[in-house]
C-alpha cells in the first residue's frame, strides 16, 4: 500500500528541474549545482551545495546540461564562468540547443587562489574563488522546453578546467 501511495503522490515530481527563462529578465545564470551531468564530472566539495562547481572534466564523453523553458524564441549571448591552469588552455567546449552548435576554445588560463576566509574552524563547504567570465557566442533558445548541453569535443591536457556556470544575456 505504501509503495502504491508513494507512486501516486510522486508522479508529478520532476527529478530534473526546469529553469524558466523569464521574458522580463535580460540575464540569467545557470549554475552547475542546478545542472545534470555525466561521466567523470563531480562537484568540487562533493555535495553540490550552492556555490559549488564542477571539476574532473577528463573525457570527451562527459556532459553538462540544463533543462530550460522559454515563453518565446529568444536570442542570448552565452558567457562561460570557468577557471583553468595554463596546461589546460586549448580545450574546446561545445554548447548545443536542439540543432544549434556553438563552439568555443578556452584560450586564456585563469587559476586564482581561494578567497581568504575569516573562519576560525575550517568549513565543510567549498571555499569561494573568482571566476573568468568569457563570451562564448550566441544561441537562439526556442519556445517551450529545451536542453542546453555542454560537451568538450577536445580536451587539452588532463582536463578542461573547473566550470562554475554559464550566463545567458538576452540580445
Describe the protein's architecture and organization:
- The structure is a single chain.
- This protein is mostly beta strands and 171 residues long.
- It is built from 1 helix and 12 strands.
- It has one helix at residues 2-10, and strands spanning 18-20, 27-31, 36-38, 42-43, 54-55, 63-70, 74-83, 92-97, 100-105, 132-141, 144-154, 162-170.
- Strands 1, 3, 6, 8, 9 and 11 form a 6-stranded mixed β-sheet that branches. A 4-stranded antiparallel β-sheet has the order 2-12-7-10, with no helix packed on it. It has a two-stranded antiparallel sheet with strand order 4-5.
- A hairpin with a 2-residue loop joins strand 8 (92-97) and strand 9 (100-105).
- It is globular, with a radius of gyration of 18 Å.
- The model has no long low-confidence stretch (mean pLDDT 93).
User: What is the CA–CA distance across the termini?
Assistant: 53 Å
The number of E-state strands comes to: 12
**Low-confidence runs (pLDDT<50, min 5 residues)?**
none
Helix content: under 10%
- What integer value in Å does the Rg equal? 18 Å
Amino acid at each position: 500500500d505504501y509503495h502504491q501511495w508513494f507512486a501516486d503522490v510522486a508522479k508529478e515530481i520532476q527529478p530534473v528541474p526546469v529553469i524558466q527563462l523569464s521574458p522580463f529578465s535580460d540575464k540569467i545564470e545557470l549554475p552547475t549545482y542546478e545542472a545534470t551531468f555525466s561521466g567523470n564530472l563531480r562537484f568540487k566539495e562533493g555535495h553540490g551545495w550552492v556555490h559549488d562547481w564542477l571539476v574532473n572534466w577528463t573525457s570527451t564523453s562527459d556532459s553538462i546540461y540544463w533543462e530550460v523553458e522559454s515563453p518565446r524564441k529568444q536570442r542570448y549571448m552565452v558567457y562561460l564562468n570557468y577557471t583553468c591552469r595554463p596546461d589546460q588552455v586549448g580545450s574546446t567546449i561545445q554548447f548545443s540547443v536542439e540543432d544549434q552548435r556553438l563552439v568555443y576554445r578556452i584560450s586564456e588560463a585563469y587559476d586564482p587562489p581561494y578567497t581568504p576566509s575569516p573562519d576560525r574552524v575550517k568549513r565543510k563547504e567549498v571555499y569561494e574563488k573568482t571566476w573568468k567570465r568569457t563570451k562564448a557566442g550566441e544561441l537562439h533558445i526556442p519556445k517551450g522546453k529545451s536542453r542546453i548541453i555542454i560537451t568538450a569535443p577536445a580536451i587539452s591536457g588532463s582536463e578542461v578546467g573547473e566550470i562554475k556556470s554559464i550566463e545567458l544575456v538576452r540580445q
